[in-house]
Fold this protein.
Amino acid sequence: GKGIITEAVLEVTDYAFRTFALHRLYAGVMAHNPASMKVLEKAGYHLEAILKKSIYKENTFIDEHLYVRFREG
């Protein structure tokens, strides 16, 4: 609730864009993890796609939400 994880994601994102010649970053989140989705949204990422049944875990298929953030400018 203090925004520590969001701040960490922002720092890593900024570092990646400053240090490497990247145009975009992406993160995959399992459908049952809305807290991580919220963190990414607060850090400027947006939902680009939902990959249906793309993860197999514990004998079941899970949708993966793909979040993306582009380099500014």
